[in-house]
Amino acid sequence: IGDMIIITATIAFFPLLLVYCGVVVTIADHLPAHWAVYLVYYIIMGVVWAFPLKPALKWMNRPVAEEDFGK
Questions:
Q1: If we measure between CA atoms, which residue out of 33, 69, 25 comes closest to residue 49?
Q2: How many CB atoms lie within 10 A of CB 4?
Q3: How far is CA 51 from the centre of its chain?
Q4: 3-class state of residue 16 by DSSP
Q5: Is residue 5 within 8 Å of residue 64, measured between CB atoms?
Q6: Distance of alpha carbon 41 from alpha carbon 43, whole angstroms
């Protein structure tokens, strides 16, 4: 049951991650063309995606009782 939650959340998160990557690259196209700007931008964007994921990770790793599944 716990594995099913992890698999479901992973499948649901993957398309969102692809959209996020697309948005990040699209925004990068509008930045000044300098390596330092890109370096700072991609470091920040590489970390920012993890913050919305934190609640999902907590949900995925919570203990699930057998009788709670399916309610």
A1: 25
A2: 10
A3: 8
A4: helix
A5: yes
A6: 6
Amino acid at residue number 30: H
Q: Which pTM does this prediction carry?
A: 0.68
Identity at 21, one-letter amino acid code: C
Q: Please state the three-class secondary structure of 24-50 as a single string.
A: HHHHHCCCCCCHHHHHHHHHHHHHHCH
Q: Cα angle at 51 between 27 and 26, to 5 degrees? A: 10
pLDDT at 57: 78
Structure token digits, residue 9: 């959340």
| pLDDT in single tens digits along all 71 residues of the chain | 567 777 887 888 888 889 999 999 999 999 999 999 999 999 999 999 888 888 877 877 777 666 555 55
